[in-house]
Design brief:
The complex is a heterodimer of chains A (about 675) and B (about 300).
Chain A: H1 2-8, H2 13-31, H3 36-39, H4 42-62, E1 66-72, E2 78-83, H5 85-108, H6 115-134, H7 138-156, H8 162-193, H9 198-204, H10 210-228, H11 237-243, H12 246-256, H13 258-271, H14 277-299, H15 304-331, H16 335-370, H17 381-384, H18 386-399, H19 406-419, H20 427-459, H21 476-494, H22 496-511, E3 523-525, E4 530-532, H23 534-556, E5 561-564, H24 582-592, H25 594-597, E6 599-609, E7 613-623, H26 626-646, H27 654-672
Antiparallel strand pairs in A: 1-2, 3-4, 6-7
Helix pairs in contact in A: 2-4, 2-6, 4-5, 5-6, 5-12, 5-16, 5-21, 5-22, 6-7, 7-8, 7-12, 8-10, 8-11, 10-13, 11-12, 11-15, 12-16, 13-15, 14-15, 14-20, 15-16, 15-19, 15-20, 16-18, 16-19, 16-21, 16-22, 18-20, 18-21, 19-20, 19-21
Chain B: H1 6-27, H2 37-47, E1 50-53, H3 58-77, H4 93-113, H5 117-148, H6 153-159, H7 166-182, H8 201-204, H9 210-235, H10 246-273, H11 282-303
Helix pairs in contact in B: 1-3, 1-9, 1-10, 2-9, 3-4, 3-9, 4-5, 5-6, 5-7, 5-11, 6-9, 7-9, 7-11, 9-10
């Protein structure tokens, strides 16, 4: 990687930043030009901008930290962008997805209303994400963070119907709660170190008293955890992701929520250096709970995009398992292990961006073609949409962490780092990580069940409704966008060493150790003498398949294949309604985990003559949305109640308000002097 | 030599199934088919024509190859008679479980592909069983891996001593339950049933015929023998050779045969003396196994053995 960079070494890295920013800004400006024809092509500018930032990221990964841009406004107020290997890694993760999504968007937005606004928001949104991970001081960070939140709010409410408006409200409230904690933690940091710059805060952070460090840790987990979508702060994801247009949900789920992970790493591992053991342990526990609960709720969803949104909760959990293990090892001074665990977490950040981005784009294509999100209305789509189907399958296999695709490698590394817990000195650090591993195994199996359902019900079998009757494959550019990501799923799966070499500098910046040294197709951990070569697995499967085909030919010669109906037990014909539905598919799981799902069912039978002749049966069932009902609803009701009381103060009478001002003035005069 | 030990799994796996069936028949006072019957079945299936449902897509046709070759790939990772397994670098025990999961994923998709209720039911139940089994399997393997300091199966087999610690015995029991569930045997599933409403594994294969069915069946036999082999490698490696010298291999091979016969007998015994459980009673059995696996891990960490 370094060799290829030498070619560019004549160019200052800042130039890549300027080029990238220029492309995105011009994309944003041109979108507002009221000429329809131009608007189809603005995404080409985003593609170029992404490439600019990708080059910048490679620079940042392999060079020392550097100040990219600064604009002082006053003595303490300054815009400052600074890049190091950690930022570089996140810029890379963002660039990969924005590149593919931009290609997809050219096709996707073709028939969309409000194209100009979309293009504008799209570009600004991407820029703001870059700004967040490249911010060098507190003010810049908070402003970028808020820009990102506000722009994404407008994107969530882009469809301008009641549902999106409600989703936008939930998103705005949750995201502002998170921001409040983030601002609070930055204020504390500023108060303790009297500095705005992250690099200065980092050097001064050792002076911060222990208790305050704990407080900062907790605030950052709540604040950034809200953006990342940890349980129980996840409620906005399954509402906001489905409301946004699919290219945006792809970006939001693929990379925006990762800025939360970036924040946690930046604050808890980089700026604060290392904390006590319980930080890491609690992050592992949060990760385990998020992954299990996230995937469990995903299983019960029949709305394709809501299902994917819940899977984001799950994957954030998996990422946190790696990061938590890394924090734990760091607190014990085991820096090599810490680095391995961080590489596992960051690898999953990258992978989740790729496959979740792909899946959301796939869901977008499916919705574009069928005009429904409900998978119970789909079925048999693989025949009509072969490419979308294939790429969705690749995404599904990757997210289920099945070899030889990318999700498998990062989960394998996560397993390894959790298992390495036995090398740590304390008993808690020995017990909790393997239990996290068991949680990961459960999560993996649940995810597999979920994607058998998601792919099997929507793409296989017979068409279940008229939505699927005249479905057309998506436009070539949409397919190309998905194809890029599907290819990357494979590349990052079979060349794990290549990916690890990209991630290791970021991990080195945090932990001071490279952790894993490897060549491109093969991973080897000396700590557990465990090797992994997904490429060999793929190679073996392919060679053996060819051998098997030849073997069968050899044994039986040419044989006849008769196409007939599926086995129907002798009834006249199977109808699509007799197929297994998504609800039926998950029924056993709903029964087994009923303590978690709290399913409710209602059966209304009306008779003509009781009990023999039934007129109609009405059945309805649902699972209890536990967090919404038992945590958020009481809080909302309480807030409304308080707000109702506060309203008494605001009677609307001008005289009263003048009175308030008078009273305030008098009070100030008395106490202020 | 060590490169070709996986052929043992491919070649002898139908035999193990034949032996289990024979022992079962003897226990139940029947004569039963000969132990070579699975081979005859496979050969016959390979020579037959195929009937494929017109509802199906390419997934249905690709699945037998994926399942079959994934199982072969898994068998390359596992040391059968010698721990000098060069192909073990391809993956470790975690990779192995996920390679199985790959096969299962596609098998479940194929079950849904034909659009019948039976296939869907089989898929749904298979995935449900997997959800309960996978944590047990992982956790019991973790105990062995942690005590050996490695997830490499050959390494675990080398390090594992002759004498057994409490944690290993607990993990072994958990692992056996996991194997029973994973291979679709009584009391979780009944491999002999063809009554649509009760089956799990067979439900997914209902639409398959001819060579494709043969591949799926063979893969199933292989998976069963592989899981037996892993159990032996991890928890009972006594006798396994660490090199490829003839005398060591000879001892190792005879030890392996004895161990396999013992497991075959055990399986047949369990199958003959137990009834199949109702599907929703299964979580309590597997939950119990999970607790055992958990205890084994805690025991190891607390007691250090």
């Amino acid at each position: 990687m370094l060799y290829s960079l030498r070619i560019f070494s004549k160019i200052d890295p800042e130039n890549f930043l300027y080029i990238g920013v220029l492309f995105f800004l011009s994309g944003a400006v041109i979108s507002l030009v009221p000429i329809q024809k131009v608007k189809n092509y603005i995404y080409i500018l985003s593609v170029l901008g992404s490439i600019g930032f990708a080059l910048l990221s490679l620079y940042l990964l392999f060079t020392l930290p550097l100040n990219l841009f600064s604009l002082p406004i006053s003595s303490i107020f300054e815009f400052s962008f600074r890049g190091d290997a950690i930022s570089g890694f996140f810029v890379l993760a963002i660039s990969i997805l924005t590149l593919a999504v931009s290609i997809y968007s050219i096709g996707y937005t073709k028939e969309m209303g409000g194209k100009g606004l979309m293009g504008f928001l799209f570009n600004i949104f991407i820029l703001s994400m870059y700004a967040v991970v490249l911010s060098g001081n507190i003010v810049t960070f908070i402003m970028s963070w808020e820009t990102m939140s506000i722009v994404s709010y407008f994107l969530v409410t882009f469809d301008r119907d009641e549902k999106s408006a409600k989703a936008g409200l939930v998103y705005a409230v949750m995201t502002q709660i998170g921001t409040a904690f983030i601002i609070a933690l930055f204020l504390i940091l500023y108060k303790q170190t009297a500095s705005m710059n992250f690099s200065d805060i980092k050097t001064l952070s050792t002076q911060i008293p222990e208790n305050i460090r704990h407080l900062i840790f907790i605030f950052s987990i709540i604040g950034f955890g809200t953006k990342a979508g940890i349980i129980p702060l996840h409620t906005w994801l399954p509402i906001a992701h489905p409301a946004a247009p699919s290219n945006i949900s792809s970006l939001m789920s693929g990379v925006m929520i990762k800025t939360g992970i970036y924040g946690i790493i930046r604050i808890c591992m980089d700026i604060l250096g290392q904390g006590p053991e319980w930080w890491g342990i609690s992050v592992i526990v949060i990760g385990a709970v998020s992954s299990i609960i996230g995937v469990m709720y995903a299983l019960m969803e029949h709305d394709l995009k809501r299902l994917l949104a819940y899977h984001s909760v799950e994957n954030i959990g998996i990422i946190l398992l790696g990061i938590g293990a890394s924090m734990m090892f760091k607190s014990h001074g085991l820096y090599t292990l810490s680095s391995i665990a961080l590489i596992a977490g960051l690898y999953h950040v990258l992978n989740h961006g790729i496959f979740k981005g792909l899946l959301f784009l796939g869901a977008g294509s499916v919705m574009h073609a069928t005009h429904t999100k409900n998978m119970e209305d789909m079925g048999g789509l693989l025949k009509e949409m072969p490419y979308t189907g294939l790429f969705f399958l690749v995404g599904s296999v990757s997210i289920c962490a099945l070899p030889p695709f990318n999700g498998f490698v990062s989960e394998w590394l996560t397993y390894q780092s959790l298992l390495l817990g036995f090398k740590s000195p304390s008993v808690v650090s020995k017990i909790i990580p393997p239990l996290g591993g068991a949680a990961l195994a459960l999560t993996g199996a649940l995810a597999a069940a979920c994607f058998v359902k998601a792919f099997g019900i929507s793409f296989l079998g017979m068409p279940r409704s008229k939505h699927v009757e005249d479905v057309k494959e998506s436009s070539p550019l949409m397919i190309a966008g998905m194809g890029v990501l599907a290819l990357l799923c494979l590349v990052f799966g079979i060349f794990p060493g290549f990916a690890v070499n990209l991630i290791a500098p970021a991990s080195f910046a945090v932990t001071g150790s490279y952790g894993i040294t490897s060549n491109s197709g093969f991973l080897y951990l000396t700590e557990t003498s465990a090797g992994l070569s997904p490429m060999t697995i793929l190679f073996t499967v392919v060679i053996m398949s060819i051998a098997t085909i030849l073997f069968i030919r050899r044994l039986g010669g040419k044989r006849k294949i008769v196409y007939g109906d599926s086995w129907d037990c002798g009834i006249p014909a199977l109808t699509p309604r007799m197929q297994y539905t998504a609800t039926a598919f998950t029924k056993p799981i709903r029964m087994i985990f009923k303590r978690i799902y709290l399913p409710r069912r209602e059966l209304k039978v009306s008779y003509i003559v009781k009990p023999f002749f039934v007129k109609s049966i009405k059945y309805s069932g649902e699972i209890t949305p536990f967090f919404e009902r038992y945590i958020y609803e009481p809080v909302t009701v309480f807030t409304h109640k308080i707000a109702g009381k506060v309203r008494l103060l605001q009677s609307g009478s001008l005289h009263l308000y003048l009175g308030y001002i008078l009273i305030t003035l008098i009070l100030l005069l008395i106490f202020g002097s | 030599m060590e490169y070709f030990q996986f052929l043992i799994i491919i070649i002898f796996s139908p035999l193990i199934n034949g032996i289990i069936k024979k022992i079962k028949a003897t226990m139940q006072g029947r004569r039963g088919p000969g132990i070579l019957q699975p081979y005859y079945d496979l050969i016959r299936l390979f020579k037959k024509d195929m009937v494929i449902s017109s509802v199906t897509s390419w997934i249905f046709k690709a699945t037998p190859y994926i399942v079959f070759t994934a199982t072969i790939t898994a068998s390359m990772i596992v040391p059968v008679i010698t721990t000098k397994a060069s192909l073990g670098m391809m993956g470790d025990v975690i990779a192995l479980i996920y390679i199985f999961a790959l096969g299962r994923f596609f098998m479940a998709l194929a079950g849904l592909d034909a659009g019948t209720a039976f296939g869907g039911e089989g898929s749904s139940r298979e995935m449900t069983v997997a959800i309960l089994v996978e944590p047990i399997m992982m956790l019991s393997i973790f105990t062995a891996a942690i005590s050996a300091g490695s997830t490499n199966i050959a390494r675990i087999a080398q390090i594992q001593g002759i004498f057994y610690s409490p944690s290993h015995i607990l993990a072994l029991f958990a692992f056996i339950v996991a194997i029973i569930a994973e291979t679709g045997r009584i009391p979780v599933d009944n491999p002999d049933t063809h009554l649509e409403l009760t089956m799990i594994h067979e439900g997914m294969l209902l639409e398959y015929s001819g060579p494709y069915l043969a591949l799926m069946e063979w893969a199933h036999y292989m998976k069963q023998m592989l899981l037996f082999t892993i159990a032996v490698d991890i928890f009972f490696p006594l006798g396994i050779s660490n090199n490829t010298e003839f005398s060591g291999i000879a001892i190792s091979f005879s030890a392996y045969i004895l161990k396999m016969l013992f497991i075959a007998f055990l399986t047949a015994f369990v199958e003959s003396t137990r009834a199949k459980m109702r599907f929703f009673q299964m979580p309590s059995l597997l939950g119990w196994a999970f607790v055992l696996a958990l205890l084994s891990l805690l025991t190891y960490i607390m007691m250090g053995k």
